[in-house]
Amino acid sequence: LATQEGRIAQLTYLSDHLDEYGRFGCCRNGTNEDEHCAIFWNTNKLTWLQGDTIWLSETPEVPKSVGWDAAKARIATWSVFETADVLSNGFSPKLVVINTHLDHVGQEAREQSSRILSSLANNLTQRFDDASVVVCGDYNSVKADNPVYSTLTTGPYALKDAWEHAETQETGGARGTIHKFRGLAFDECYGDGTVELCAVAEPDKEDQDHIDWILFRESSNMRRDKDSGGT
């Protein structure tokens, strides 16, 4: 479970009511006084091995650093897990989860951040024994004609879009994934005014103006196990 914009009181509430779940992640300003990109996991199915938070800026290791034309400090929190499953070849697969929230103002910041995320996903995959990777986030960008999306889903380190590979695809009638809940008066194209949610007048796919995406890449061990008839 990956959350964006969570405050410590909200995250603590979730932890208190999700008894079998662990939680990892720090605040974007280095304290508990601002938003987190937290990761929750089922401790019965996953064993947490390691994790960290980087800042999406020219200096990713510097806490609170603001990159390029961003309005706020932005982060990516990652964790590596070992799964309880054992593949047919005896391999116990690892899973990398990256959770992020890109800036709502700076287009350059979003594009540069996507490059950092692509590199991070690839580096962690190689570092942790060919792990599978899942990248979750609020990208503050629609998918259509967007270099942020294309950077993450094309090229040698391409991630797959979970929406496109899902067995069922349901939006509940909503065109976008931002709400800023305002009751029945809410305009789903306008949102909070920071992202042009209906930039695609007539999208050729239902998900082209989503700004929240789940991207993934299976490890070669997982692919080989499937090809050989494993689970």
TrEMBL record:
<dbReference type="GO" id="GO:0000175">
    <property type="term" value="F:3'-5'-RNA exonuclease activity"/>
</dbReference>
<protein>
    <recommendedName>
        <fullName>Endonuclease/exonuclease/phosphatase domain-containing protein</fullName>
    </recommendedName>
</protein>
<dbReference type="InterPro" id="IPR036691">
    <property type="entry name" value="Endo/exonu/phosph_ase_sf"/>
</dbReference>
<dbReference type="InterPro" id="IPR050410">
    <property type="entry name" value="CCR4/nocturin_mRNA_transcr"/>
</dbReference>
